C-alpha cells in the first residue's frame, strides 16, 4: 500500500508573527520556518503504518518555494521513502494545492492520502476536503486513531461531545488531528540518510494545473491589545464582578 502525505512549510509556531506595514499579510522574511505540526503527525502516522508492515511506501509532497526541500528532507528523516516538490513561487491557496495533490494522486495512485487537518498559517482547514471532492475519494477528517483492515480505514474522529468512528473504503483521504500520535524526534543519522533519499522537483505546469489565486486578501490586522485584568479579594467579589460588571452570569 502506497501512502501519499502532504507537508506544508509554515512559520514556526513559537515565532511571534508580525503583520506587514502595508497590512497585506504576515511578514515572513527572516522568520523561522518549520513543518506544519499536523503534517508532522501525518508523516509519523504513515511511517508507523509502514513499520507495522501495513504500508509499503511513503511519499511526501510539498508545494511552494525551493526552501520546501528542507521540510521534505525532515519528512524523509522521520522515515518517508521519497519526496516530491511542486515548485511554485506564487501564493498558493487551498484550492490550488488541492488541484496539485489531485494531479499527484492520479500520477501516484496511492491507497491512502494523509494531510494535516489545517495549516497553522492560514487556518483554512479546506485542502483535504477539496482534494477528496476533486479526486472523488471518501474522506475522514480530524483523525485521532487510524486502523487499516480489509481494504478499509477505521478512523476515530474527535467531535463535539465525544468520539465518532467511521469506516472509509480505500483509497481515501484522511486528515490528522493533534492526538493521533506524538511525532518522533529526528536523529542526526536519520537526517544524514535523508539527504540520499530521492527528491523529485515538478512544476504545476508539468502537472497541468492552473494555480492562480481566486481570493483576494483585503486587509490583515493584529488582534486588539487585551486590557489589564483586575484582582478580586474573594469568591464573593468574583461572583459580584461577573454578575454586575462583566454581566456574564
Ligand atoms: P489548509 O487547508 O490550508 O488549512 O491545509 C490543510 C493541509 O493541507 C495541511 O496540513 C497540509 O497537509 C496540506 N497543505 C496545504 N498547503 C500545502 C502546501 N503548500 N504544500 C503541501 N501541503 C499543503
Automatic annotation (TrEMBL):
Transcription is among the record's keywords: no
Superkingdom assignment: Bacteria
Sequence ranges assigned to domain Electron transfer flavoprotein alpha/beta-subunit N-terminal in this UniProt record: 23-211
InterPro entries: ET-Flavoprotein_bsu_CS, ETF_a/b_N, ETF_b, ETF_beta_N, Rossmann-like_a/b/a_fold
Keywords linked to the UniProt accession: Electron transport, Transport
Classification via PROSITE patterns: ETF_BETA (PS01065)
SMART domains on file: ETF (SM00893)
Pfam families (UniProt xref): ETF
Family, as annotated: Belongs to the ETF beta-subunit/FixA family.
Protein name in UniProt: Electron transfer flavoprotein subunit beta
The organism's taxonomic lineage, starting at the top: Bacteria, Pseudomonadati, Pseudomonadota, Betaproteobacteria, Burkholderiales
Amino acid at each position: 500500500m502506497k501512502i501519499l502525505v502532504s507537508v506544508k512549510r509554515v512559520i514556526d509556531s513559537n515565532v511571534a508573527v508580525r503583520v506587514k506595514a502595508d497590512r497585506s499579510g504576515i511578514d515572513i522574511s527572516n522568520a523561522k520556518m518549520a513543518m506544519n505540526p499536523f503534517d508532522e503527525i501525518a508523516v509519523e502516522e504513515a511511517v508507523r503504518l509502514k513499520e507495522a508492515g501495513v504500508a509499503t511506501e511513503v511519499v511526501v509532497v510539498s508545494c511552494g518555494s525551493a526552501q520546501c526541500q528542507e521540510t521534505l528532507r525532515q519528512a524523509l528523516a522521520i522515515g518517508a521513502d521519497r519526496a516530491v516538490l511542486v515548485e511554485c513561487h506564487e501564493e498558493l491557496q487551498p484550492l490550488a494545492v488541492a488541484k496539485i495533490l489531485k494531479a499527484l494522486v492520479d500520477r501516484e495512485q496511492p491507497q491512502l492520502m494523509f494531510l494535516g487537518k489545517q495549516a497553522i498559517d492560514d487556518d483554512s482547514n479546506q485542502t483535504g476536503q477539496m482534494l477528496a471532492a476533486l479526486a472523488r475519494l471518501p474522506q475522514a477528517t480530524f483523525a485521532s486513531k487510524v486502523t487499516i483492515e480489509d481494504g478499509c480505514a477505521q478512523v476515530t474522529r474527535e467531535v463535539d461531545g465525544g468520539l465518532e468512528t467511521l469506516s472509509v473504503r480505500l483509497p481515501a483521504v484522511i486528515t490528522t488531528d493533534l492526538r493521533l500520535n506524538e511525532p518522533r524526534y529526528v536523529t542526526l543519522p536519520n537526517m544524514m540518510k535523508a539527504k540520499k533519499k530521492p527528491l523529485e522537483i515538478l512544476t504545476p505546469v508539468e502537472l497541468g494545473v492552473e494555480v492562480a489565486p481566486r481570493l483576494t486578501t483585503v486587509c490583515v490586522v493584529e488582534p486588539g491589545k487585551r486590557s489589564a485584568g483586575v484582582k478580586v479579594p474573594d469568591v464573593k467579589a468574583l461572583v459580584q464582578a461577573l454578575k454586575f460588571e462583566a454581566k456574564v452570569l
